[in-house]
Every structure is written in C-alpha cells, then in structure tokens.
C-alpha cells in the first residue's frame, strides 16, 4: 500500500493591525484595520483578499487593490485617496466627504459623503462585463463632481444612481458639464445585457440634485441607455422643485434596430427646452412596453420646432397602454 503525502500550500497571512504598520503586510490574505482615530496609509496596498478599514477620523490612502474581494472604507472624517481603487467584487467608501481618482469594480460601487461632497474621477462597475451586473450609487449631502460613470457589460447591465445635494443645496447637477457638481458621460450601454423581456428593463440611470438644485444636460449624448443587441433601459431625471434644462438633440431610450425601446421619465418644477429638443422612447419593432413620462408645473418651449415627445412603435399586443406618452402637472 503506497501512501502519498502532499505539502500544504502556504496560508495567507491576514493583516489585523494599524494603518501605521501596513508595510508589514505581504499582500497575501485580507486587510482589516480598526482605528480609533485617523488612518494614513503611506504606501499603495494590494491584497489577495479584502481591504476593510474603519476609522474614527479621516482616512488617507494611496492606490488600493483587492484582487479577489472588496475594498470597504468607513471613516467619521473625510476619505482622501490619491491612487486608483480596483476590486474583484464591490467598492464601498463612506466618509464625511470622499475624494478619489478612478474606481473600477467587477461588481458594484457605493460612495457616500455623509456631510460634504464627492470629488471622483472615472467610475466603472461591471468591469469584466459578464458577471452580476450590480449598481453604482453616488450620494452626498453636498455637491458631486465625477468623471465618466459607466456600467457597461457585455451580457449584463445594471443601474447608475446619483443623488447630489441631499442636504438641500441650490446647485444644478450638470450632466456632461463636469465641474464640482456634475459628471462626464453616464452610460449603461451593453451588448445584450438589456435582455428581451417585454416589460422588465434591468438597467437604468437616475439623477437628482436635491430638493431645489435642478439638472442641466450639456449634451444628449452624455446620457446613454441604448444597447445594440438588447432592449434599451430606463432614464430618470428628477429635478424635484428645481429646473431641468435640456439642449437640442434627442434624449433617447429608443430601441436600436429591431430591439425594444425603454422608458424616459422627467420630473421638475420647470422644464426648459431649446429649438430642436426631442424626447423619445420609440421602436420599429413591437412587443415591448415603452414610453415617456413628464411631470412639471411649467414647460418652456423655444424655436420654430419647439419640443417633440415620441413613443413611436407598437407596444405589447393585447396590453392596452403599453406604448405611451404621459404629460401631467407636477404636484
């Protein structure tokens, strides 16, 4: 009888210590840090497992990479990251304010400023395009300045949700305009991730800038919910008690080619358009619920062509009202 013995692989050495001693971590295993006060990491950190830091004050770090898990930072003070955040799973950052460069996660991303602002570079979730298709959520009591925000899968997609000035600041969020309260392009486009369900749309974009801040769209091309090989998604611009300002061009959740259209919902105290503004959730195929919802107290029109609102194309056979345009007064 032959007996074979195999050497066991070296075990990952999890790090459970202070921020000041991070140079002792060899990169294998998880990083768990609980600081009573502030935390400063004076070097980039790469871990095969998670990186989880809780601090009673500020968190200052360089590049953070979790090869197989998440990066999860919670601070009572501001979080400042001077290098990129890259994760295999989720990224969660929560501080009084958050400043970061690029954030890229295979799964989802959640960044929250509990009493201040967000200042972020490009944010990308669903980065390998084929996994869960989880969401990007950016929330701040103050302004949110962010680069391009993309949730672009190949076979999956999900949502982008931006909630700026939840504390009530009167600053418009500029989609495509950048700046301290604005973004680059917001996109959930995917190859087939939108699916072909007649009712359900798995992906969408929601933008809000507080009770009165309003929203300004610099270019319609900065909002992308259409997909080449699946139905389009949901686009919601919620200006609440402020003004939604739209440029010329098509604000579109149209179906691409033979694909189904999606949904566009606009809510504001006042909607201001220019000559050539078009809002459309149209399709050349049939069998998909699609439409446009508008709720406003005042809609300002301009130019020879004014405003066009379209939901062309048949809906679902036997389902009344499955292709629609609705314009109602705002409460």
What does this molecule look like?
With 331 residues, the protein is mainly beta. The protein is 0% helix and 40% strand. The strands form 4 sheets. It has a 17-stranded parallel β-sheet that branches. It has an 8-stranded parallel β-sheet with strand order 4-7-10-13-16-19-23-26, with no helix packed on it. 48% of the residues are buried.
- The share of residues in extended strands comes to 35-45%
Give the CA-CA distance, first to last residue.
84 Å
Quaternary structure state of the chains depicted: single chain
Q: Kindly name the structural category.
A: mainly beta
User: What is the tally of beta strands?
Assistant: 34
* Total count of helical runs of at least 4 residues: 0
Radius of gyration: 23 Å
List the uncertain runs: 1-10
Largest sheet: 17 strands, parallel
Shape: globular
DSSP helix fraction: under 10%
Average pLDDT figure: 92
Summarize the structure.
With 331 residues, the protein is an all-beta fold. It has strands at 15-16, 31-35, 39-40, 45-47, 51-55, 59-61, 64-66, 71-75, 79-81, 85-87, 91-95, 98-99, 103-105, 109-113, 118-119, 123-124, 136-140, 144-145, 149-150, 159-163, 173-175, 182-183, 186-187, 204-208, 215-217, 223-224, 234-238, 243-245, 249-252, 263-272, 277-280, 290-300, 307-310, 323-328.
């Amino acid at each position: 009888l032959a007996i074979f013995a195999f050497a066991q692989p070296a075990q990952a050495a999890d790090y459970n210590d202070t921020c000041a001693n991070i140079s002792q971590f060899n990169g294998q295993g998880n990083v768990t840090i609980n600081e009573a006060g502030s935390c400063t990491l004076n070097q980039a950190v790469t871990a095969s497992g998670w990186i989880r830091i809780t601090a009673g004050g500020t968190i200052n770090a360089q590049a953070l990479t979790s090869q197989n898990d998440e990066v999860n930072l919670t601070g009572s003070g501001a979080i400042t990251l001077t290098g990129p955040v890259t994760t295999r799973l989720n990224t969660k950052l929560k501080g009084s304010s958050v400043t970061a460069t690029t954030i890229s996660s295979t799964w989802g991303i959640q960044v929250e400023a509990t009493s201040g602002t967000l200042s972020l570079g490009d944010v990308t979730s669903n980065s390998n395009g084929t996994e869960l298709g989880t969401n990007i959520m950016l929330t701040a009591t103050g302004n949110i300045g962010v680069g391009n925000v993309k949730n672009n899968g190949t076979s999956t997609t999900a949502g982008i949700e931006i909630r700026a000035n939840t504390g009530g600041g009167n600053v418009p969020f500029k989609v495509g305009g950048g700046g301290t309260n604005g973004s680059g392009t917001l996109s959930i486009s995917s190859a087939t991730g939108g699916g072909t369900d007649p009712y359900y749309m798995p992906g969408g974009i929601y933008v809000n800038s507080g009770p009165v801040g309003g929203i300004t769209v610099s270019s319609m091309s900065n909002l992308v919910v259409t997909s080449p090989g699946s139905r389009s998604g949901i686009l919601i611009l919620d200006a609440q008690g402020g003004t939604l300002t739209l440029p010329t061009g098509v604000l579109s959740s149209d179906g691409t080619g033979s694909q189904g259209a999606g949904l566009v919902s606009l809510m504001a105290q006042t909607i201001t358009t220019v000559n050539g503004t078009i809002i459309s959730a149209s399709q050349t195929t049939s069998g998909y619920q699609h439409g446009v919802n508008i709720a406003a107290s005042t809609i300002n029109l301009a130019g020879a062509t004014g405003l066009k609102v379209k939901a062309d194309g048949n809906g679902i056979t036997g389902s009344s009202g499955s292709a629609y345009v609705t314009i109602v007064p705002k409460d």
